[in-house]
Specification:
The complex is a heterotetramer, with 2 copies of chain A (about 240 residues) and 2 copies of chain B (about 220 residues). Chain A is about 25% helix and about 25% strand. Chain A is α/β, with parallel strands linked by helices and about 240 residues long. Chain B has a single domain, classed as Glutaconate Coenzyme A-transferase (3-Layer(aba) Sandwich). The model of chain B has no long low-confidence stretch (mean pLDDT about 95). Classes of the chains: A alpha/beta (about 240), B alpha/beta (about 220). Chains A and B meet through α4, α5 and α6 of A and α2 and α3 of B.
C-alpha cells in the first residue's frame, strides 16, 4: 500500500507519522495522559509501549483500569513513571503491579465512577465548565464535593478532566485524523480524543482520504493530532520494551 | 433447617421471569450475569453493557472470542442483529439519563430504605474499585438486587442501616435472595415469595428488620 | 417489501407503526414537543403534518427555527396550536407566520443560543442536572441566570431541556428503533431523540433488523418509541392538512 | 476622499490570506461566507459548519443541490473526501470546546476590548435571532470579524463601548474592515494595514478610538 503521506502536498494536512517513536515524541514529564481501552478491548498497547520507551516521567494516567499483568500500563507503572492514576476500576485479579505500588504508597489514586469519568472527559472536550450529576451522591466518592438539589433530586458538582495527551486505539484512520473504531474497542477512545490537547491514535490501517464513510466517522479529524499504524496486537507486543 | 435454599441459578430464573419483554436491561458483574441464561430469544429483552453495547447476545462460542467484543465483566460475548456500538460517554448517558428500564446488581447489603452497598467492603487495606456500579444504581429506572440472604457469619444482608460504604441511596426496588423475593416499597419491605419450607415469621427473625407479608398465597 | 412488522413474534419488540396517525397518537395538549431539523434538512415534515391533523393544543415547540413559509411548523403555528417556542433562530425572510404571532403577542419565545440549546437537550437525555457553559456570559440571553467563574473564565448555569415528545426525521430505521440519518439532516435529531419521553421517528425506509451497521447506528433504539415510514418529501407534502 | 475602499471580496481575500494551512475554520453567515472563495484546495483548510459538517466543500453545482446538504446559511454545499457528518451537540462541543482554530463573523460593532455585537440591533420591535453566534464567538480560538468600518450614517463600528447588545465579551482577535485590518491586543487596537490613500491619522479620526500604528511599512 502506498502510505497516505505520499499523497499529501506541502500545504496539505497530513497527521500520519511513520513510527511509534514519532507518535509519542514530545510528551513532557508531568503530563496528564488519557489512555483509552477497557480490559482487552481498544487498548493502545503499541503507544503505551512507545511511551515507555520515550521516557516521560511523573505522569498522571487517566484510564478505566490501572494495568493488568506485566505489560502495557502495568509495565509503565512498574517502571516508576506514573505518579498518579485517575481510574474507575483499578483492582483486578491480575492488577498486582498497581496493587503493590498502591499499598506501598508509591502511587496516588483518584477513584471516579465510570460514568462520571466518561462525562468529565466529555465536558473537557465540549467546553463545559462543570456539571451536576446524580451519580455518587451520598457516597464516599462525593465526600467534600459541592452538591445541589435540582428538581427534587440531589446532585454532585463535577469538573472537566483534561488531558495533555490522549492515546487511543482505533481501527482505521486517514491523513486528516478521522477515526473509526472496532466493536467494543470504541469505549473511551472517542471521548478521550476530544479531551486532550494532543490526541495520538494508533490504527490497524491507514486508509486514503475519503475511504471512511462520512456518515460513520466516529472521531472527526479535528480531535486528532497524530495517526500511526500499528498493525495488530502481535506487533504491539513485539515492540521492544525499555523497562 | 430443612429448607432448600434457592440456587444462584434459581434466583437468576426468578429475576428473568420478572423482566418484561421489550425491556432494556443491564446485568451487573458477578451473579447478575446468570440472568442472561434465563432470557429466551422469543421474549425479546435488550441487554446493555456499559462498555458500549446495546443488543448484547450470548457468550461467544469457544474459538469465536474477539478481544474487542467483551462485556463489562471482561467476558467474550456476541452482538445480536439490531445491536449497536457506542462510546463510553454515550453509554453512561443512557444509564444516567434514565433510559435503562432495569439493572440487576449484586450487593453486600441493602437497607430497608433501598440504600445499596455493593462497591467496597470498607476494609482499610482493600483496594477500592467502583466501575459503573454507582452510575447504574443511580440511573436505572428499576434496580434489582441479587445476593445471599445471610453472610457467611449468618448475619442478614438486609439491614436497617448500611454498615458498608454506600453505592447509591434509595435506589433498590426488589431484592432477590436465596430465601425470599422482597419488594422495597415506600411503606417498607414487602415479601413477595419465600423459599419452600420457610415460615414468614422465621424469615423475619433471620432478617432482623420489619417485613410485611405480601405473598400472593398469603 | 414485506413490512418489518410481519417478522416480529408476539413478544418481539416492534416499534414500527403503520400510519402517521398512529405515530402521533396520544400526544397530549400542553406537551413539549422537540422538533428536529435545520432549515431544509432533516425536518420531520410528515410528522408535523400528522400532529396538525392530530389536534393537540397549547404546545411548547423546541426547534432551531420557528417555521418557514406556510407549511410544516408554520402551519402548526398558524393554526394557533403553539403557545410557546424555544428556538435559536426564529427570524428568517419567510418566517412571516411566526413574525405575525410574535408581534401580536400571541406566542411566547424563549431564545436560546444554538449550542446551548443542543447541550440542554443533551443534558436532558444524559441525566445531567445542570451545567456551566461560557456561551452567552455577559449577554442579554444570560440575564438573571446564575453565573460562576471556573478556572478564570465566567460561565452561565443552564438546565436540561426535556421533551414529552420528540419528532425526528431519519433516513432508515428498524423495528428496534435504531436510526441512521442522511448528511446534514442529522442535526438535532439524535440529541432530541435522547431528550424526550417518547421519540417518534419518520424514516425514508424501514429495514430488517440487522440491516443497519452496528458501527454506524447513530440513534440506538433505546431512545426511540415509534418508527413510521414516510417515503419522501413529496409524500409529506401530500398528507392532507387539517388547517 | 480619493481612497478606494476595499470591496467585500478584497476583505475576504485578506482574511483568507491570514488563515494558516491546516486550520479548522467556521465561516459565519453573510460576508464571511465569501472567504471560502479565496481558499485554495492546495492549501488545505478544513471548514466546519455548525449544522454538522466538517470538511465542507464548495457550493453545490446547479442541479446537484441536496436539501440535506446545506451550510448554516441554508445554502446547498458539498462535502470533501475526508469530511464527516455529526449531530448538533457534537458540533457545538467542537465549537465550545476550543477545537476550532478560527471563526470568521460579521458584526455590528466591535469594542476596543474585543467585545462583539453581531446578533441583535437592540431595536424594540426587532425579532431576535441568535443562532450559533454566541457559541462561535465564545468558543473559537481566534475570532476574526469582517464589517464595514462605518455605518451608513458615517459612525465608526469600532467603538469604545458597545451600544448594541453583546454577543460575547473580549473575544475578537482581528477586525477586517473596508478601510483597515486591526488587531485587538492586550494593549489596545493595533492597525496592521490601511487601504491605499488613507493616512493613519485620518483613520484614527474616522474611527474615534485609540489606535496604534503597527503596519509593516510603518
Amino acid at each position: 500500500m502506498i502510505p497516505a503521506t505520499r499523497r499529501a502536498g506541502p500545504a496539505m494536512i497530513d497527521k500520519t507519522v511513520p513510527t511509534l517513536a514519532d507518535a509519542v515524541a514530545g510528551i513532557a514529564d508531568g503530563s496528564t495522559v488519557l489512555v483509552g481501552g477497557f480490559a482487552t478491548s481498544g487498548v493502545p498497547l503499541a503507544l503505551i509501549d512507545a511511551l515507555l520507551a520515550q521516557g516521560a516521567r511523573e505522569l498522571t494516567i487517566v484510564s478505566n483500569h490501572a494495568g493488568n499483568g506485566d505489560t502495557g500500563l502495568a509495565a509503565l507503572l512498574a517502571a516508576g513513571r506514573v505518579r498518579r492514576i485517575v481510574c474507575s476500576f483499578p483492582r483486578h485479579k491480575d492488577s498486582w503491579v498497581f496493587d503493590g505500588l498502591y499499598k506501598a504508597g508509591r502511587i496516588e489514586l483518584e477513584l471516579v465512577p465510570q460514568g462520571t469519568m466518561a462525562e468529565r472527559l466529555r465536558a473537557a472536550g465540549a467546553g463545559i465548565g462543570a456539571f451536576y450529576t446524580p451519580t455518587a451522591y451520598g457516597t464516599d466518592l462525593a465526600d467534600g464535593k459541592e452538591t445541589r438539589v435540582i428538581d427534587g433530586r440531589a446532585h454532585v458538582l463535577e469538573y472537566p478532566l483534561h488531558g495533555d495527551v490522549a492515546l487511543v486505539c482505533a481501527d482505521r484512520g486517514d491523513r486528516w485524523g478521522n477515526l473509526v473504531y472496532r466493536k467494543a474497542g470504541r469505549n473511551f477512545g472517542p471521548v478521550m480524543a476530544t479531551a486532550a490537547r494532543r490526541t495520538i491514535a494508533q490504527v490497524r490501517e491507514i486508509v486514503p482520504l475519503g475511504a471512511l464513510d462520512p456518515e460513520a466517522i466516529v472521531t472527526p479529524g479535528i480531535f486528532v493530532a497524530r495517526v500511526v499504524q500499528a498493525s495488530d496486537r502481535d506487533d504491539a507486543a513485539a515492540t521492544p520494551r525499555a523497562a | 433447617m430443612t429448607i432448600k435454599r434457592w440456587s444462584r441459578d434459581e434466583m437468576a430464573a426468578k429475576v428473568a421471569r420478572d423482566i418484561p419483554a421489550g425491556s432494556y436491561v443491564n446485568l451487573g458483574i458477578g451473579m447478575p450475569t446468570l440472568v442472561g441464561n434465563h432470557l429466551s430469544a422469543e421474549r425479546e429483552v435488550i441487554l446493555h453493557s456499559e462498555n458500549g453495547l446495546l443488543g448484547m447476545g450470548p457468550p461467544a462460542a469457544p474459538g469465536d472470542e474477539d478481544p474487542d467484543l467483551i462485556n463489562a465483566s471482561r467476558a467474550p460475548v456476541t452482538l445480536l442483529p439490531g445491536g449497536a456500538y457506542f462510546h463510553h460517554a454515550d453509554s453512561f448517558a443512557m444509564i444516567r439519563g434514565g433510559h435503562l428500564d432495569i439493572c440487576v446488581l449484586g450487593a453486600f447489603q441493602v437497607s430497608v430504605a433501598g440504600d445499596l452497598a455493593n462497591w467496597h467492603t470498607g476494609a482499610a487495606d482493600a483496594i477500592p474499585a467502583v466501575g459503573g456500579a454507582m452510575d447504574l444504581a443511580a440511573g436505572a429506572n428499576r434496580v434489582l438486587v441479587m445476593m445471599e440472604h445471610l453472610t457467611k457469619a449468618g448475619e442478614s444482608k438486609i439491614v436497617e442501616r448500611l454498615s458498608y460504604p454506600v453505592t447509591a441511596l434509595a435506589c433498590v426496588d426488589v431484592i432477590y435472595t436465596d430465601l425470599a423475593v422482597v419488594d422495597v416499597t415506600r411503606h417498607g419491605l414487602a415479601v413477595r415469595e419465600i423459599v419452600e419450607g420457610l415460615a414468614f415469621d422465621e424469615l423475619v427473625r433471620m432478617t432482623g428488620v420489619a417485613l410485611s407479608d405480601r405473598r400472593a398465597s398469603a
